[in-house]
Amino acid sequence: MTDSSALELLGEHACFGGVQRFYRHASSAIGLPMRFSVYLPPDAGGKQLPVLFYLAGLTCTEETFMTKAGAQRVAAELGLILVAPDTSPRGAGVPGEGDSWDFGLGAGFYVDATEEAWSRHYRMYSYILELRTLALATLPADPQRVGIFGHSMGGHGALTLALRNPDLFRSVSAFAPIAAPTRCPWGKKAFGGYLGPDQAAWRGHDATELVKDAGRAVFPQGILVDQGLADKFLAEQLYPEDFEEACRAAGQPLELRRHPGYDHGYYFISTFVEDHLRFHRRTLG
């Protein structure tokens, strides 16, 4: 473990026998201070624990999952460390970055921007990898047992980061992910703005296209996805059926669970978050 003095502790709360913390640190990937949250389960007697990264969706922060999902009770039982980053840089000063709820502030889309206005600070793909390294260096986390999951924009981020880095993330799941962003309005707006008009550059950040390109089971132990059928974004933005078909064709095991009556929000996530934590704990060992 390295010196954790580079981390500024912003808050700490006892929670289910463990501790919920909120941190700020200087990010080399972003070039600005970034915030993230950590749940540490009850003391494991010096043992390294599996760690699970959660990527939140549009407009969210590092606090959203920890305050709304109700995951700490199960994480405490299972001995899982939870880490949740913010969803974009803050203070980048890009003109117009706060004009839209689905682009800019709170909407980094887990890509490294290449367009000039955004490329200096909007590097959320690299930031997640940086945060993984930081977490492994400063927390009692097992580098061989790292998983990732997320919701909506964060589900897209979790799937793409895992599919591109299966050596770094051993398990992956998602709630209502933007599963084919090169096809949907959210993805076209974000990718066009951050990555430019060349759609060939977008493919590497589209989970459906990544599975197609792999042509094999990148995660033979399976991927778990939950989708609410009362989700108002389902038809226009999410395209889980495209991801499902790509997985089927590639031989990638996928459990896509469709839930009548559930929408896109945290009532949905909190209902099924225990299933996801147990899925990751089984997979990570």
Tell me about this structure.
With 285 residues, the chain is of the alpha/beta class. It has a nine-stranded mixed β-sheet with strand order 1-2-3-5-4-6-7-8-9, sandwiched between helices. The protein is globular and about 50 Å long.
How many separate helices?
10
Number of strands: 9
In round numbers, the mean pLDDT is: 96
- The oligomeric state of the chains shown is single chain
Instruction: From the alpha carbons, calculate the radius of gyration and give it in angstroms.
Output: 18 Å
Structural class: alpha/beta
Biggest pleated-sheet summary: 9 strands, mixed
Order of helices and strands: EEEEHHEHHEHEHHEHHEH
Regions with pLDDT < 50 over 5+ consecutive residues? none
Helix coverage percent: 25-40%
What attributes characterize this protein structure?
10 helices
Secondary structure elements and pairings:
Blueprint: E1 8-15, E2 18-26, E3 33-40, E4 49-55, H1 64-68, H2 72-78, E5 81-85, H3 116-119, H4 124-138, E6 141-151, H5 153-164, E7 171-175, H6 185-195, H7 207-214, E8 223-228, H8 234-238, H9 240-250, E9 254-259, H10 266-284
Parallel strand pairs: 4-5, 4-6, 6-7, 7-8, 8-9
Antiparallel strand pairs: 1-2, 2-3, 3-5
Helix pairs in contact: 7-9
The gist of it:
This protein has 285 residues and is α/β, with parallel strands linked by helices. The chain has 10 helices and 9 strands.
